[in-house]
Amino acid sequence: MSQTTSTTNDIITPGQRLCKESDYISSEGTYIHKGYIYSSVLGFKHIIKRNINENTVNNNNNENENQVENNKDYIVVLKEREPGILPEIGSIVTVQVLRINPKLASVAILCVGTKALKETFNGVIRIQDVRATEIDKVEIYKSFRPGDIVLAQIISLGDSRSYYLSTAKNELGVVFAQSVAGSTMIPISWNTMQCPKTKTKEFRKVAKMDQDDDTTTDSKNE
Amino acid sequence: MEAFQKIHPLEFYRKFLVRSVRPDGRSLDDIRKTTISTGSITTADGSSFVKMGNTSVVCGVRAEVGEKPSTDKSKISSYNVHENKNIFINIELGPICSNTFSSTKPSDIAMSLCSRLNSLINRLEIPETDYYFDEEGKALWYLYVDVYCLDYDGNIYDAAVLSIISALKNVKLPKGVIENNDEYYKDLESPQRKLKIQHYLIPLSFSVIDDYILADPSLDEEKLSSGTINITYNELNEICLLLSTGTSLISETNLKDCMKKAKERSSFIIDLINNSNVDK
Amino acid sequence: MKIDYRCSNPIKTTKPIDYSVYKNKKLSINGNGNNNINTSINTTVNSNNIKIQRINRSDEQLRQIFMKIGVVSQGSGSSYVEMGKTKVLCTIHGPRATQKTELFETAKLNCELKYTTFSSTTEKIEYVENSKEKDLSLLITQSIIGSIRLEKYPKTAIDIYILVLNDDGNVLVASITAATMALADAGVEMFDMVSSCSVSSTKDNRTLIDPTTSEETIPTSSTILVAKMPSLNEITQIIQTGELQYTNVLECVDLCIDGCDKIYSIMKQNLIDSLLQKQKEKEQQQQQQQ
Fold first, then answer.
1. DSSP state of C150
2. Which pLDDT belongs to residue C88?
3. Transmembrane region positions (chain B) (predicted)?
4. How far is B279 from chain A (nearest CA, A)?
5. How deeply is A19 buried, as exposed, middle or buried, from its count of CB atoms within 10 A (0-12, 13-18, 19+)?
6. What is the per-residue pLDDT across C163-179, written as a single tens digit (0 to 9) for each?
7. What residue ranges do the domains of chain A occupy?
8. Half-sphere exposure of residue B221, counting CA atoms within 13 Å on the CB side?
9. What CATH fold (topology level) applies to the domain C56-278?
10. pLDDT tens readout for residues C146-163
């Protein structure tokens, strides 16, 4: 959404008053109280310029709102370390399969995006969320096995115990799996993986690896 | 990187270990920076604070007075183990130091560590007269040594041993007065005495990952390791404790290497303990 | 049920009492009661008949405060606070998944305070949590819960653990400060930081800010604690114990509010300094890598 940021070296503490509500749009790390924008975390103040071109393209529907806010910039307070990272609806997560049964696969959420979680959260991939097409023919046993590392997307906060996850996209699914013989398997099609040692094939809901994935891993290494 | 470490921690470590380094930049036998300071807790009768890398523990000694144990053997048969024992060690690994511990139940690690430390401390050979409350020894001091882990980042055993020995050396006992036969008072105005502890304890622990032996392991390394070696020497280069646990087999040469490294550390540790008092 | 297995000594032991107290008592029994009346303006007598006199510090002066954040590597946030000889360590875990099965729309805040067994000279502290610790934990929770944006973290728990290493009075204030600093360190979103201050008022009209243990134990004194969010100008907690005149209460609250503002500015400055320090270290690391 945003293109340019102007960074200042201002360090902001929680509860510090930043500006009037009308000056900027309150965003991450800030809140509005009695007509003023306050910071809610310790960090650096950033003013993020709105890209007007992009906004007009994306938000044709609510033009009226945009005209009021178009000339305003976002105000953000960014903390340097982010231990409070949490799985949110829509975020791509890396999970490990713990248990499977005919209806669902129980998983532990290990990473959100490229950030590793300190402690794992529980999640569930239900049978109807495994893939987008031919939902009625999905079998959990042919999609996941315990121990597999899977890329998935969070679709809801789920029930009290676990988040609901989905792999119903091409780029989502199993990214790493070990065969019965114990070696790392190589994907050979969208629903099969092969063991390099024994050449046996096993069924999985395989994630489609594309260049996009490589660029993200590169950028985080920098 | 971060994600890779989380998903395949062992593979991540092996990548480093083949080049004989660890992810935190240490070589395999590098020991983290160790600091000891004593006497910082004013409410305790003796205290110490030990930091090894991120791992930190605080140790405090409470001195309490009690009767002399009866010499009648038949009476104390069930407590034979505790005969003539005046020091009681307890280690607390609470949720404050790591998210893996709960506050309601002491963990298995804490319990096994506690019994190991209690047996080790008997090696100090402190004369019984040191515990005398009054001049004649009608009553005795009992020392409760409590080790609280503040930051659990591996190798808690070494940190605990160092904190106990330096806290005990920091203990100052006031002169006791007994009135009306069973009322105990301490006289804070008279000079205080120290325990006569001749010995030092020099601990060093190792973790075994595959064929690599890592000195002073961090928490991540301990989690991945298949075996642990604890070695404790005294200042005369006598072994006080040698413990090897886990599923991995350790060759004799490796073990000898470990013992050599532990021995090399003794002069450094003795200096550290002797210069640890913050009052000076 | 919590079982305390840890004390393995078969012999019953006690903490010996100070001999001078015994001697004083003996003296007063022997008809030397005039001692107690001799209280001048600057001295007050506590339960052990020891005179209270502040050295190098006026009645309205806080003790030296030292704080540091990020001291525990294993927690998501942590802090260490020293007020004079009172030393407190605080670790925060979370926001993390709850073990409880009920669904929370907001985060759940848990707070647990524990004294170390050697932290007090006056009382014996057991390994299991006693009611005083439970009480303090609750008071801390109540003081800071209003400052945290719990709705930002659904389905999670934020656990605060506080360890009192050395108790020399005013533990509650030190703990609230430590908890707030640790929350800021953890990056938990909050409306404002909570700072607190307490005042002990004695019968002879002395108001002692930031009391030590010996000042807290004056039997006829009463204490007032105020916790507030200075930036929003909202008070989150007022605790008063003991008997006080109405005008005295107002006076004490005013004094506390002043103290809160002072502590708040120290907290703020400390956070800024530590972030700057971290930034510097980061830059140095990057330079080394290049």
1. G
2. 95
3. none
4. 36
5. middle
6. 999 999 899 999 999 99
7. 2-78, 92-210
8. 27
9. Ribosomal Protein S5; domain 2 (3.30.230)
10. 999 988 888 888 999 999
